[in-house]
């Protein structure tokens, strides 16, 4: 075997995730460990683009946002997260996104409903009680800043959802806040935030098992890889063995399918023809 010349240039083909990038990140993270920092990466659920982020492992991402935004603006961000992962995330429709035109309704807190996330963060009470909200203009400015920072993303269909950076930094926070353990042994836990069956990263845009009782979720790309080469009958859920039709969605497509069906222009959810976004993916 010929010796490797350390001074030779690296061709593009040499720079791969497994052979070059991953070992370097592992080496850097080992050096960062004493400082409680870590480099993480995530693939965009739609564009497949990989995002890298330097994450503080000891400081909550919401706490870091508090250094940039006022208490009232942070309360607005928490109401936005509540809307994504509670209001628009139900067993029948896992949208996990908020329409742009609906964000103005979140600028001020509802009188008869206290935000779960805000109450967890402001346990002392006075700050929450004094929250009178922000103006619609201020809410738009906060949303614009979060999009510019890669924390939120706004789709062509005008839905706000969490961008890869936020999903990486808020992973633990989201699961601790919106997933609930069962109080009794006979009760089922409430799981609103689920990981992809393939890559084990949070799914906010993808597909779900056609069996409504099953907890399997996939990113489009991960489902395509897993079911590649199988017949329609062979595309079965790895847990409950239900045939996967790829037509029950997680993310804004779930909302768009419901709207299309309610207007009488499509089939019922679960029988919906493949969405054009996913058809392009396949």
Helix-strand pattern = HEEHHEEEHHHEEHHEEHEHH
**Multimeric organization:** single chain
Cα gyration radius (Å): 21 Å
According to CATH, the fold-level topology of the largest domain is: Arc Repressor Mutant, subunit A
Helix content: 25-40%
End-to-end Cα distance:
42 Å
Strand content: 5-15%
- Look at the structure and name the CATH superfamily of the largest domain: Winged helix-like DNA-binding domain superfamily/Winged helix DNA-binding domain
The biggest sheet amounts to:
3 strands, antiparallel
Beta-strand segment tally: 10
Mean pLDDT: 82
How do the strands of the widest beta sheet line up side by side?
5-7-6
Helix and strand composition category: alpha+beta
Task: Choose one word for the global shape.
Answer: globular
CATH architecture of the largest domain, please?
A: Orthogonal Bundle
Instruction: List segments where confidence is low: pLDDT < 50 over at least 5 consecutive residues.
Output: 113-117, 123-128, 266-282
Helices, by number, come to 11
> What is the total number of structural domains?
3
Can you identify the CATH class of the largest domain?
Answer: Mainly Alpha
